[in-house]
Write a structure and sequence with these properties.
Strand content: 5-15%
Shape: globular
Number of helices: 8
Mean pLDDT: 81
Order of helices and strands: HHEEEEEEEEEEEEEEHHEHHHH
Structural class: alpha+beta
Helix content: 25-40%
CATH architecture of the largest domain: Up-down Bundle
Bound molecules: fe (ii) ion
Low-confidence stretches: 19-50, 204-209
Number of domains: 2
Length: 482
């Protein structure tokens, strides 16, 4: 089944090649002009990266060890500070699953803490740890303040190794990574199969929050690879390498009039699905800023009027997407959810050709194309007719935004020549590497309400890369991936 046919044809039409198919042309159909060689796989681009680690030190290392490249590994077990630097439940929060620390007995070192989630203020149990013994089999205690860990307490993490000694000459690395929705913390050996060694290999300074992290399906040995925001549909607002979005706030003026039945959802699923859609809503809201900034970049670089007009229209679409997603989150969560302020909207803007093309490729040509494919799948999988129609509208708009990105790339390649082509080639390869494996699994999977599972999402993204992105690359005269 050629499920991406419509999307592929619409994007090819945008760049003047509607008659193309998903397969490469029999003869060289690349047309005139320079052809950029894009490596067909990370393995063929360079020699495989060796297992991570500095040369063996003269003195034995202990505890958590930070390398110069920012990597952190665990040389030996250590005792962590188990205090939790989060305010205690005040009793005034909207949702309270605990009232005092005495209610938090499921694991050691429990505290009833106050927080603001995507669905409003709440009290919930937070658990810390002092040692691996507090965490149980297959887990390790990662001390607060270690490496990139953002949590304000020591946390029990999934661990396929406990110390470097478990890794046969390699190191037992800490992977702490925020995928756009939540922080994912694991310990895993560096291996010969890894496709990155540190965040620097993932263009962390310029891409959508990409980091070198350990990823593996349940039961499989994790490998280290670049990963970006895995729960984002559409164009993110990236400032200093991180996707930014507004915090949630109770306000009713960002809700589309959308009604659908949620009565059969249990409380736990309801909270998790509402949080997922609230995170998506915040990203859609941030996309408004992203397109406004994109318009300014187009003006600064002298783009044609047609691209400017479409960028302005896309920003208006994103207002509607945010309203739809806040309505879905509010409906499922059973309370009003909207966006707070977004001060990052006016952050300093890069207007050099390389930065512009790299972010255009990663956030637009790849990000919005995959977002459109994902949106179509989400719209198909939901059961409620009204909800499906609203999500189908988002998917249709995202396909148009993807077409705008490809048209803009075509213009940039013509206008700026080799500098733009080289930047595009690097960015496409990095984006492909990011999607070679499935994204990290989220806390909930519910296709009926638009939350796809990690495997479904990974397979969908790879097929869209193969069947939509690759033909568009060929159409632009860039040597495509096989
Ligand atoms: Fe979009
Ligand atoms: Fe959108």
């Amino acid at each position: 089944m050629d499920r991406h046919r419509t999307l592929r044809l619409s994007l090819l039409a945008a760049i003047g090649g509607a008659a193309c198919s998903a397969s490469p042309p029999a003869s060289s159909g690349a047309g005139e002009g320079a052809v950029v060689a894009i490596p067909t796989s990370p393995a063929s681009a360079t020699a495989e990266p060796p297992p991570d680690g500095e040369p063996e030190p003269a003195k034995p290392k202990r505890g958590w060890v930070s390398e110069k490249n920012g990597n952190v590994h665990r040389a030996s077990r250590v005792t962590c500070d188990a205090t939790i630097d989060i305010a205690a439940c005040a009793g005034t929060e909207r949702h309270q699953s605990c009232k005092t620390d005495a209610d938090c007995t499921e694991h050691p070192h429990g505290k009833c803490t106050s927080g603001i989630g995507q669905v409003g203020t709440y009290c919930g149990c937070t658990y810390s740890c002092e040692s691996d013994d507090d965490c149980g089999a297959g887990k390790a205690c990662v001390c607060k303040g270690t490496g990139a860990l953002r949590a304000r307490n020591s946390v029990c993490a999934e661990a396929s190794c406990n110390t470097d000694a478990d890794c046969g000459g390699s190191t037992c690395g800490l992977s702490a990574y925020h995928n756009g929705c939540y922080e994912q913390v694991t310990l895993a050996c560096r291996t010969k199969e890894d496709t990155c060694k540190s965040d620097a290999d993932c263009g962390a300074a310029t891409t959508r929050g990409s980091a070198c992290v350990a990823i593996g399906a349940k039961g499989a040995t994790p490998t280290w690879q670049c990963a970006g925001m895995s729960c984002v549909i559409g164009r993110p607002l990236v400032v200093e390498g991180e996707a930014r979005a507004a915090r949630p706030r109770a306000r009713a003026d960002w809700r589309a009039p959308l009604v659908f039945d949620t009565t059969h959802l249990c409380a736990d699923a309801r909270e998790a699905i509402a949080a997922h859609h609230a995170a998506i809503a915040a990203m859609e809201h941030a996309s408004i800023a992203s397109f406004a900034r994109f318009s300014l970049q187009l003006l600064a670089l002298g783009a044609p009027a047609e691209l400017l007009a479409e960028a302005q229209n896309a920003a208006r679409d994103e207002v509607e997407h945010a309203r739809i997603e806040y309505a879905i989150a509010s409906r499922i969560g059973g309370r009003i959810i909207g966006p707070d302020k977004l001060p990052e909207a006016t952050a300093r803007l890069a207007t050099d050709v390389v930065s512009f093309v790299e972010s255009l490729v990663e956030e637009g040509c790849v990000g919005e194309t995959l977002g459109a494919a994902e949106g179509q799948e989400v719209a198909r999988s939901v059961k409620d007719e009204g909800l499906g129609a609203a999500l189908a509208q988002i998917a249709e708009d995202e396909a148009r935004h993807a077409a705008l990105a490809w048209k803009t790339l075509q213009w940039a390649l013509d206008a700026f020549g080799p500098e733009a082509r080289d930047a595009a080639a690097r960015a496409f390869e990095r984006a492909r590497a990011m999607h070679e494996k499935d994204p990290p699994a989220g806390p909930v999977e519910n296709e009926e309400f638009g939350v796809l599972g990690s495997r479904t999402l990974g397979a969908l993204r790879r097929s869209a890369l193969r069947e939509v992105v690759a033909p568009c690359l060929r159409q632009l005269g860039l040597v495509a991936w096989s």
